[in-house]
């Protein structure tokens, strides 16, 4: 494999991927306000972690760099679903956030109705992109199955429901782990497993373990990063439940377990997935 660092991989692939996202939505969406609201959040500075992980797994499974654009529809679908989830999460009846990534949240910029519809539009368009992808039928069906399973009422939507309905209850460690698994880890899991499926890589238990660990670690890092700002003080988070230090220890354990899991992979180039773990050390 010519690229060994995740950051170098993103540097190579992201400009074309970002162009793809914008070109597709610009050409497909005719309703101007809807298009602006969808593009606003899609271009508001997200890191594109999930689609890059998907593409990195495909690349590590042997897909050539020049062939990666064939996988952009599926990678794009994952980012559309992620973007919809953030728009809806910020709504007044959910997390009620005025800002996201340092910019006005979608409903603050466009109003609640347009923000709900921008989210609806992104979610629906994701599955249109998968259906229209040039990958073979088996791969497209696997992508629909995995993404809907992990992002819908068996995954992220279930986690969000627990989150908003259990707000006033202190969750146990195992309840909180389930909540984070569904709300955050399942979409990361989808990105990684879809990458393997789309590249004909046999899904191994090591890759699944890696995905589970990375998904939970992602949430813990987010909560630790937010620790000092006071906004999360009464939320169900690991730092609030077990303390900051114990959360840091848990995060380090997850990263170590993910590292060991990926090292056991044999039919797979390990460099990019090992290098992605640096994200948790920043
Ligand atoms: C509305 C169905 C529905 C679900 C919302 C994603 C989500 C569920 C809630 C967001 C709560 C949150 C901040 C969770 C922490 C982990 C997380 C998903 C962080 C945001 O992901 P990043 O860091 O975001 O990849 P960027 O901005 O880079 O795209």
From TrEMBL:
Catalytic activity: isopentenyl diphosphate + (2E)-geranyl diphosphate = (2E,6E)-farnesyl diphosphate + diphosphate
GO molecular function, one term: (2E,6E)-farnesyl diphosphate synthase activity
One BP annotation, GO: terpenoid biosynthetic process
Cross-referenced CDD domains: Trans_IPPS_HT
Cofactor or coenzyme needed: Mg(2+)
Annotated EC: 2.5.1.10
Lineage top rank: taxon: Bacteria
Chain segments annotated as transmembrane: none
Keywords: Isoprene biosynthesis, Magnesium, Metal-binding, Transferase
Pfam families registered for this protein in UniProt: polyprenyl_synt
InterPro entries: Isoprenoid_synthase_dom_sf, Polyprenyl_synt, Polyprenyl_synt_CS
Family statement drawn from the similarity comment of this UniProt entry: Belongs to the FPP/GGPP synthase family.
Protein name according to UniProt: Farnesyl diphosphate synthase
Species classification: Bacteria, Bacillati, Bacillota, Bacilli, Lactobacillales
């Amino acid at each position: 494999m010519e690229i060994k660092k995740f950051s170098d991989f993103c540097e190579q692939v992201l400009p074309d991927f970002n162009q793809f996202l914008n070109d597709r939505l610009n050409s497909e969406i005719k309703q101007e306000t809807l298009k602006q609201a969808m593009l606003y959040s899609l271009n508001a500075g997200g890191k594109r972690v999930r689609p890059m992980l998907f593409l990195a797994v495909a690349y590590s499974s042997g897909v050539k760099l020049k062939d990666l654009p064939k996988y952009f529809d599926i990678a794009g679908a994952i980012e559309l679903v992620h973007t919809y989830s953030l728009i809806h999460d910020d709504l007044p009846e959910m997390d009620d956030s005025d800002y996201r990534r340092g910019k006005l949240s979608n409903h603050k910029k466009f109003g609640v109705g347009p923000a709900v519809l921008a989210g609806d539009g992104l979610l629906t368009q994701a599955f249109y992109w998968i259906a229209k992808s040039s990958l073979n039928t088996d791969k497209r069906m696997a992508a629909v199955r995995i993404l809907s399973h992990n992002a819908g009422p068996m995954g992220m939507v279930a986690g969000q429901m627990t989150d908003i309905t259990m707000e006033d209850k202190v969750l146990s460690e195992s309840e909180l782990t389930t909540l984070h698994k569904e709300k955050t880890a399942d979409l990361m899991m989808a990105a990684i497993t879809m990458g393997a499926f789309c590249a004909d890589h046999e899904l191994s238990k090591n890759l699944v373990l890696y995905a589970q660990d990375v998904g939970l670690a992602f949430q813990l890092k987010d909560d630790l990063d937010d620790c000092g700002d006071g906004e999360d003080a009464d939320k169900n988070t690991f730092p609030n439940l077990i303390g900051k230090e114990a959360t840091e220890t848990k995060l380090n354990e997850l990263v170590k377990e993910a590292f060991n899991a990926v090292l056991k992979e044999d039919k797979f180039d390990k460099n990019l997935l090992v290098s992605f773990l640096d994200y948790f050390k920043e």
